[in-house]
Amino acid sequence: MKADSTGILTVEELKEIGRYPSEERMKQGPIAIAECTQNIPCNPCETSCPFHAITIGERITSLPVVDPAKCVGCATCVTACSGQAIFIVDKSFSEEVGTVSFPYEYLVKFKKDDIVKCANRAGEYVCDGKVKRVVLTAKADHCYVVTLEVPISMVDEVRSVYRTWED
Amino acid sequence: MKEYEMIVIGGGAAGLSAAIEAKRHGVNVLLIDSNDKAGGQLVKQTHKFFGAKMHRAGTRGFNICKELLKESEDLGVEVLLNGLVMGIYDGDTVAVDVKVSLTEHKLMMLKAKNIVISTGASENAVRFEGWTLPGVMGAGAAQTMVNYRHVLPGKKMLMIGSGNVGLIVSYQLMQAGVEIKGIVEALPKITGWQVHASKLTREGIHIYTGYTIKKAHGTDRVTGATIAKVNPDWSLVSGSEIEVDCDFICIGAGLKPLTGLAHMAGCELIYDKALGGWAPAHNYNMETTKKGIYVAGDATGLEEASTAIEEGTIAGAAIAEATGHLSAAEAEERKAGAWRRLADLRDGFHGEERLAAKNKQLAEYDRLMGVRE
């Protein structure tokens, strides 16, 4: 896998190994995607899910499997994941825009409805997005969940807020 | 000379767990740590840990540290801080240099029939032109500065090494506001977990696989660095140099077990690259080839805090048994539980090598001691 040398996963690679939800499912509403491709001995995603939608099983090194029928995209797993590798995508709003939610453990310098630059898995600026929510629960222990509204074609790409080092 | 049933040397994840487990069963234990606070490397681990619920997964390392310290305090574990153990003599006497103040030290001699060496590990160095300049530091040192002492080591950082320490420390420095100028990894592949690498790449951090540091620039301190591509024979590819604008350089090139005390005490060491080098052979009880001397955690091979906790628990239970505070059956239940949790943590592709190396340590103990199946 190319990510072994770059650290950057691609949608194509995730689809190839069967770890990406179908277009059809994403159009029905929010769903979690575990971008977790190595056998880490870890299972908080499974134990944290209130809907029992993520399965790792007896061997904690198995990869998480998200059940598209049970997952409601609540994002509990997003902050439970110690590897910060779970994202929520939603393409159900319209033909034009969708949302991406991701874990965020930095100083938050934006608020709801702000327009921010969005970054892909390589940290490149790919589009502008609107901040829909910034959520911090006690259970998440200082890990925010940021939800951005982005062009529908960018839902599979956007994974963070674009970082500039000036400020 | 003051005597204890058990002395634990090093109050990190392994040592604290050993002391807690033993004290829980009534063992008279003293925990010695060379720092002004126990907790070892956990005090500065701000990330959430992997594992399962029973390994405290999803909890940040420094919070696991707080839990362990509270447990040890509630049980009344006696702790000696600022105490640097200089040697183990006759298998049961511990010499401690206790720092009373900046200038005043006193020597203490203590005795115990059961000693746990849980001294952790030290960082490996990488030598390159300019490596002795101020501003070149271990990744662990930078992590202590930023997360524990709350001091920024600099503004712009270059990391050497893409193992989990290199990746995690880069991430935490970035959280503190440091500009990460890049991570170089001489191997063609990132050696840490992909999820840790991805946290950095989506923030725009470049991981230069197949690159190494050629030179650190500066006269009084680091003012920059040159990195270059590595040939398969480890020579540098001429013309591949890239100049990096940084004011400090972190080295995350792995760790090796701190085996000085074990070596001095006469414990047999065996070499295994997968465990970071030389480490004491030990048995199912974590006891070394020297009777009454136990090891736990990174001091017996580089692993994780979660594995250190389990190894400490095994040593603590074994000593509770040896001192008559636990019956063989009760101790076995505690030890078997910890070994089961260890098996989980060493499962899978990335754990295979470590599991094989740990099994070799056990087998080597049997061979050295002439134990038959």
Textual characterization of the structure:
The complex is a heterodimer of chains A (167) and B (373). Chain A has helices at residues 3-6, 11-16, 23-28, 44-48, 76-80; strands at 31-34, 54-55, 65-66, 86-90, 97-104, 115-119, 125-135, 144-151, 160-161. Chain A has 167 residues and is an alpha+beta fold. The longest helix of chain A has 6 residues, at 11-16. Chain A is globular and about 45 Å long. In chain B, strand 9, helix 4 and strand 10 form a beta-alpha-beta unit. In chain B, helix 1 runs parallel beside helix 7. The chains are: A alpha+beta (167), B alpha/beta (373). The A-B interface holds A 3-9, 35-44, 47-48, 59-61, 80, 82-85, 105-106, 119-124, 141, 143, 159-160, 162-163, 165 and B 47-53, 57-60, 63, 162, 174-175, 179, 188-190, 193-205, 207, 209-210, 344-351.
Structural topology:
The complex is a heterodimer of chains A (167) and B (373).
Chain A: H1 3-6, H2 11-16, H3 23-28, E1 31-34, H4 44-48, E2 54-55, E3 65-66, H5 76-80, E4 86-90, E5 97-104, E6 115-119, E7 125-135, E8 144-151, E9 160-161
Antiparallel strand pairs in A: 1-4, 2-3, 4-5, 5-8, 6-7, 6-9, 7-8
Chain B: E1 2-9, H1 13-24, E2 29-32, H2 61-75, E3 78-80, E4 83-89, E5 93-99, E6 105-117, E7 121-123, E8 136-138, H3 139-148, E9 156-160, H4 164-175, E10 179-185, H5 194-201, E11 207-209, E12 211-217, E13 224-229, E14 242-244, E15 248-251, E16 255-257, H6 260-264, E17 269-272, E18 277-280, E19 293-295, H7 305-322, H8 328-345, H9 349-369
Helix pairs in contact in B: 1-2, 1-7, 3-4, 4-5, 7-8
In terms of DSSP E residues, the strand content of chain A is 25-35%
How many discrete domains of chain A?
A: 1
Helix fraction bin of chain A: 10-25%
Structural class of chain A: alpha+beta
Q: What is CATH's topology name of the largest domain in chain B? A: FAD/NAD(P)-binding domain
- At the first level of CATH, the class of the largest domain in chain B is Alpha Beta
Provide the residue-averaged pLDDT of chain A.
95
Secondary structure category of chain B: alpha/beta
User: What's the architecture of the largest domain in chain B in CATH terms?
Assistant: 3-Layer(bba) Sandwich
The count of helical stretches of chain B stands at: 9
Per DSSP, what share of the residues of chain B sits in E-state strands of 2 or more residues? 25-35%
> Main β-sheet of chain B, in a few words?
7 strands, mixed
Note poorly predicted spans of chain A: none
Spell the H/E element sequence of chain A.
Answer: HHHEHEEHEEEEEE
Uncertain stretches of chain B: none
| Order of neighbouring strands in the sheet with most strands of chain A | 1-4-5-8-7-6-9
How many beta-strand runs of chain B?
Answer: 19
Tell me the name of the CATH homologous superfamily of the largest domain in chain B: FAD/NAD(P)-binding domain
Into how many domains do the coordinates of chain B divide?
2
Tally of strands of chain A: 9
